[in-house]
Amino acid sequence: MTAPAASPCINVCQMDATTGWCGGCLRTLDEIARWSSLDETRRQAVLAALPERRVAWLASGRTLPAPQPPRSRPR
Question: Which of 14, 36, 40, 60 is found 20 to 30 A from 22 (Cα to Cα)?
Fold first, then answer.
């Protein structure tokens, strides 16, 4: 059995009001919120949508940020 698909999160969480996508990973709030409960088929469907969203994002003149290191959690 293979491991579930990893989240595409790059720790740049800024929602874009026009598209409804996160400016870091290009997922919707619903996709982000439900990621941990999605089955593998649904995770793969979200991941498959990201390249097209990336093209639309860049075509609109927006830029994509560089991935950020994981945030440390307060102890």
Answer: 40
